[in-house]
Amino acid sequence: MFVLLILGLLGIVFFEAPRLIYKRYWKELAVFLLLWVLASLIAVSEFLEIQLPNPLELAASLLKLKR
Amino acid sequence: MLEKGKITPRQTGELLFITMLASAVLFVPNFTADKVAQDAWLVLLLGALFGLIPLFIVYRLGLHHPEKTLFQYAETVLGKWPGKLLTLTYVWSYLRLTAVIIREFSEFLITSFMPNTPLSVFVISLAFMAVWAVLAGLEVIARMNEFIILLVGTALVIVMLLSLSNWDLHLLLPPFQANPLTLLKTAVIPDVWKAETVTVGILMPFMTRPKKAFVSGAAAACFAGVLLAIGIIAATAVFSHHLLATLQFPIYNFVRTINVGKFLSRFEVLVMVVWVTGIFIKTSLFLYLSSLGLAQAAGLREYRPVVMPLAVICMAWAFGVYHNIIELTRAIDRPQFYIIALSLLAPLLLLLVTLVREKTAGRRQAGDKNN
User: Fold this and answer.
1) CA B86, CA B323: separation in Å to the nearest integer?
2) DSSP B281
3) CA B145, CA B8: separation in Å to the nearest integer?
4) Strands B259-260 and B264-265, how do they pair?
5) If interface means Cβ-Cβ distance under 8 Å, which residues of chain A face chain B?
6) Strands (E), chain B
7) Chain B: residue nearest A44 by CA?
8) What are the boundaries of each domain within chain A?
9) pLDDT tens, B242-299?
């Protein structure tokens, strides 16, 4: 199943990226890849049941440090 | 322009109608009956009326900023970065809504029809269909919806008519017993309150006649509210509100009671048709809106590249957002502040800033002429 997930995620890049490179839409490509990395991180961590650190908790701990 | 398709006012109304109806039809009767007993239908009408407030605000905004979506004029009104921040908040909320809807859809199908199928089957297939629809564009979603709304409308009317023999209207007595404050609090729960009318602010520039946006949106909110109210009246008249509050999917159980002459029975398939098609349109529309918002905030030339990564995020989120159906039903039966903030306070702020700016700009222009 994990292989399928990785294949699906890579499939998205192969589906979208060549068209963007062909059209020379560099900005779109950058945004796409950034989002894709984020999405893959979330999806893989969800699949492997790893708890990603919540950014709000980081902010809360920073506030506590100040106090 | 990111979107080349155009939709008619009628199609806009139909899109809004289906987004309001589809998610509410299964979950709303349960918790409204729990909170306000036999007055649940009143709450639905109240929620539809409340839906007109954000609709009016975004309609005025749309008239002040023609040819621009909410995401675009947020930047011109609030300034570049605050506007982008607001847009990203909208994108986040639409993504979250999409994830919650996908989860609701899967949980309903698992609990009622296919208890042995894993969650991922429904989540992945729905997200795949939604991505396909979003890649095709807004016009395709709107036209598909024109066909689907016929199915939904006839299915609901048939169900109501056939159940008439089971109704016991005494169960609705005595009416108007609920505490007014509880009524108001229940009416601002996202599924009851037709706050989806904010979507008009994003769809307006794509309409052939944007001036009709208010009429079509209002018609959608009223129709959806009245239809849901009738549905709840029917369910209360069959089950009484005590039983209604304990059932997981009251409308589904209500339809299962229909049995005309031991021949016309098992109508729950019709509910499934309403739910699946409606949820499909709603998911596609919301995924489309979040992709459009992200593309406009990032200044892209097309929204296509962001669709699939956003869908993947939605899928992962749908798995993690709730642990089980009990948590889901407990989470959607209370008012949520971020919905109120995004569908009422933010557009109100935008409108106020627009009006003040236009006033001061007008005065400055008049002053320039005098000099």
Assistant:
1) 29
2) H
3) 12
4) antiparallel
5) 9, 12, 15-16, 20, 25, 27-29, 31-32, 35-36, 38-40, 42-43, 45-47
6) 259-260, 264-265
7) B316
8) 2-66
9) 888 888 888 888 888 888 877 777 888 877 877 888 899 999 999 999 999 999 998 8
Q: Are the Cβ atoms of B313 and A38 closer than 8 angstroms? A: yes
B160 Cβ neighbours under 8 A, 6+ residues apart: B230, B231, B234
What the block records as the tokens of B262 is 């031991």
Contact B345, B43 (CB under 8 A): no
Domains and CATH numbers, chain B: 14-319 (1.20.1740.10)
Write out the DSSP string of B139-180: HHHHHHHHHHHHHHHHHHHHHHHHHGGG--GGGGPSPS-S-H
Nearest CB to A28 within list B300, B313, B319 = B300
Q: Which residue matches tokens 């169900």? A: B159
pLDDT tens across B195-206, in order? 788 888 889 889
Distance from CA of B312 to the nearest CA of A (A): 6
pTM given for the model = 0.90
What phi and psi values does residue A48 have, to the nearest 5 degrees?
A: -85, 0
| Chain B residues close to A36, C-beta within 8 Å | 308-309, 312
